Structure formats: C-alpha cells, structure tokens
Amino acid sequence: TAVSGDFKVADLSLAAFGRKEIQLAEHEMPGLMAIRSEYAAARPLAGARITGSLHMTVQTAVLIETLVALGADVRWASCNIFSTQDHAAAAVAVGPEGSPQQPRGVPVFAWKGETLEEYWWCTEQALTWPDAPGPNMILDDGGDATLLVHKGVEFEKAGSAPDPSTADNDEYRLILELLNRSLAQSPGKWTALASEIRGVTEETTTGVHRLYEMHQAGTLLFPAINVNDAVTKSKFDNKYGCRHSLIDGINRATDTLIGGKVAVVCGYGDVGKGCAESLRGQGARVIVTEIDPICALQAAMDGYQVTTLEDVVGTADIFITTTGNKDIVLAEHMEAMKHQAIVGNIGHFDNEIDIAGLSKLPGIVKTEIKPQVHEWRFADGHTIIVLSEGRLLNLGNATGHPSFVMSNSFANQTIAQIELFTKTEQYPVGVYVLPKQLDEKVARLHLDALGVKLTKLRPEQASYIGVPVEGPYKSDHYRY
Ligand code: NAI
Q: Which residues of this UniProt protein bind NAD(+) (predicted)?
C-alpha cells in the first residue's frame, strides 16, 4: 500500500524496522556521525533546501538525517527504480520523532520497483518545494536531478520542449512528456528554480562525466563538486564497496556457487577492480575486458586473463559490466552464451547490457523467477539469467554497499554540501574536487573504528619529504 502525504513510500509500517537498521548503521558510519557532532551546534546548513537524488537505502537515511541535523531542509528521491529499501524510506518519512500515524520526517519519494514514469515523477517531487521556487542545493547520484533542471531551463529558453515522439528512447520520451506538461502548466518554473541553486554535489563517475561535459559545452548552470573523485570516495566505495556488494547481489539473486566458475568482468576501473577481486575471492577464474591499455596491463599484472568478450562469450558462466559505457554486452553476445549463464551490470545506467535488443530477438521468452531476476529463453531452448533488468545489480538484487564504506562517501558528500552552501562565492560555475586535506580528514575519521595506529611524521622527516607535519601528505597528482 503506497502511502502519501507530502511524501510517497511503499509502506509506513516498515518504519520501526527501518529505524532499527538506521541505528545499527549509525555505529558503522563513524565519519558521518563525527561530522554530525562536529557541526551540530553551528548548523552550517541552516537555510539550505537540499534536493537529494540518491539510492534510498539505510545508509542514505543516515546521510539525510545528518543533513537535517546540520540545519538543512531536505526532499529526497532514489536515483534508480530498484534501489530503494522500503523500510529505510519509511523510517525517513516517519522521522525519529514521528509515527506511521503522524509522519514527521523528511519528504521521501521512493519505493522499490518504480516504473520509469513514476521515477521521473519522484524526481520532480523532490525538486518541488511547497513554499519556495525549489531547492538551493542538489545532492545527486548519476546526475538525473541535475539533468531535469538543465533540460527544463534549456527548453524554457527555446520556448518549447521537443515533441516526445521524437525521443530515441523510452526514458527520454518520459522526460520530454514531463517537461512538456510542466512548461504548459507553470511557464518559467525551471528557470526560476535553477536561479536559486547554489550548486550540486555529485556522487558517481557517470554523473561526474555528465557535469564535465556540460561545463565544457558551456551549459552548466551552477557550480558542482565532484565527490566521486575524492580519494576516500572512488578508491573506497567504487572498489571495496563493489567488492562486497557485487557477490552479495549475485548470491541473493541466484545462489549459484561462484567457486570454479569462469567470470568475465568488463572494465577494470575502480569498480571493475573491486568486482574482479571479489569473484576471485570466491574461487572463480576471472577474465577481464578493457579498452584502456593501462587498465588492461594492471589487470594482467594482477593475474587476470585479459581478452575480448567475443573470445569468451560462449564459455564463461558469469558476465558483469562495470564500464559506465554503453552497449558492452549486446543481444548477439547473450544469444551465444552458455545455458544459464548469469548476466548483470554494476555500472550506473542500464545501457551497458542491450536488454532492448534482447527482447526483440525472434522467439525470445522472458520469465520472472522472482523480482529483479529473469530467465530469458532463446528460440533454441537455452536460457540466460539477467539480473535487475540490466540495472545496477548490487542495489537491485542486494542492498548496495555496507555502511562503513558509505560513511566515507557520505562524509565527503556532507563536507561538499557545507563547502558549496557556505562558500558559494568562492566557487564560480565549474566542477571542483574537495581539497586533499578534507580527503585526509575523512580517512582519519575512520581509523579508530578499525584499530588503525597511524605513525606520526616527525618534523625533520616532514621537511625532508617536503610536506607539512599535519598534511596534506601527497601532491594533487598522486594517484594512490
Ligand atoms: P572507471 O572510469 O574507473 O572505470 C571504467 C572502466 O571501464 C575504465 O577503465 C574504462 O577504460 C573501461 N571501459 C570503457 N569502455 C569499455 C569497453 N567497451 N569495454 C571494456 N572496458 C571498457 O569508472 P568506475 O568508477 O569504475 O565506475 C564505473 C561505473 O560504475 C560508472 O557508471 C559509475 O557511476 C558506476 N558506479 C557504480 C557503483 C555501484 O554501487 N553500483 C559504485 C560506484 C560507481
């Protein structure tokens, strides 16, 4: 039963369970909680109206409540149709002091299994403030909230939005339908909304690509902080997070023994490195595909066979895409796979695996085994198993990354929100990364919990290697 007030979640009665898991997560998120207590009195986000578009999980609940503790007004949507944990969404909507009868939390618009149309409705709701033209900050993951604002402004400038029937895919058609409606109903809405926005902080590789592209094209409307490229984000969440949650997703979806199988990982960036390691840890023989000679060489030196997908498509058992690129596993690849091969994507968008092409093959039949697990039977009778319809399987089939690693990512997010909101004039329109000192601070906040004892740099040593005793310890071009 979907419930709505100024929010929409699947089932408010799940709030108590969500609250318990949030409490467990708080202990596992020392970075975020330390920032919460550091700034609780100063409330640097007082006056901030933050629209968040990021997987509505238990960990995100702790992020949302941190932003609120720092003074912000928050509205939230998930950034994927399958990634919401309904108990987390319910707990956030109810709030720590509310009840299912009297919800007093944050307006959340998210449930697991949205349609694409509902997804864009939710994004619009998160951007629509009851008593203001809109948010003054965006916290984005993959850039969909930012995209909607930019498209809205672009079409208002042009005087109209393109005819939805001209869209080259279903999702863009839905965006055009939404914007055509809103241009007719509230002319000027997106331009007014965008003019209030001080900036966006972006969580992931794919969203960051979009921001740099817009900045290069001169169309970026407000400054952005690239949270992804904080070292304590991409070198931890993308790698160690996926190392945990990839096999969690495969196991929950299929319960197939991974040991002894041949697994292909397409892409050996941060996500691919974590995925390959976890599959190998389970005893799979892992094969990597890459287009970048540096990453291909890294994979080879890490002990993986590196070859093309075409070479191994008929013999491998598990195929995982991690590229952030499109058209990696095509319909013809899937047709050539072994009986009951498993195919899944952990990159941000669903265009890495050509599900549309698969569904058009003559004689193909799709059967739901359970939500987010589908068997596709080819005309010759053999089948493959596709996870989360090609959307990120660690959030679709499992619960995404665990709290401790997300504490690093979300500590960066919170610091980035404070930075852009309180020092707006220091950030002309552009895309920025956080200063290294803040990156080191985020890492530092997580050491005690793991019993890490740091060696103290002595002043003579510091001057010998030319760094301050208190850091930063590396130059900006150092790669970790
Ligand atoms: P990255 O840029 O470090 O790695 C991507 C790799 O794929 C690169 O090395 C690139 O050379 C390679 N690649 C590109 N086209 C290819 C092709 N046709 N065949 C083989 N390899 C190809 O990016 P990162 O940080 O690893 O992120 C990858 C994707 O995962 C992005 O979409 C990102 O947003 C997403 N992501 C998902 C997470 C999740 O929890 N599901 C967490 C973090 C990131």
A: 204-206, 238, 267-274, 290, 325, 346-348, 394, 401
Q: pLDDT tens digits, residue range 424-455?
A: 999 999 999 999 999 999 999 999 999 999 99
Give pairs for 446-451: CB < 8 Å, separation 24+.
446/30, 446/31, 446/404, 446/407, 446/408, 448/30, 449/30, 449/404
Strand partners, 200: 138, 224
228 is a catalytic site residue:
yes
Place of tokens 């691919």: 272
Sheet of 262-266, strand order: 305-306, 285-289, 262-266, 318-321, 341-345, 383-387, 373-377, 365-370
* pLDDT tens-digit readout, 281-337: 999 999 999 999 999 999 999 999 999 999 999 999 999 999 999 999 999 999 999
The answer to whether 141 touches 55, Cβ cutoff 8 Å, is yes
What are the CA-CA distances from residue 77 to residues 44, 162, 228 (Å)?
23, 25, 19
Phi, psi (degrees; rounded to nearest 5) at 287? -120, 135
Extract the annotated binding site for substrate.
Answer: 57, 141, 203, 233, 237
pTM of the predicted structure, to 2 decimals: 0.97
CA distance 313 to 336: 7
Ligand 1 centroid–CA 269 distance in Å is 6
Q: Which residues of 289-313 are buried (b: 16+ CB within 10 A; e: fewer)?
A: bbeeeebbebbeeeebebeebeebb
For the four alpha carbons of 63, 69, 70 and 76, in that order, the dihedral sign comes to: positive
Residue 416 structure tokens? 């980035």
Is residue 27 annotated as part of the catalytic site, yes or no? no
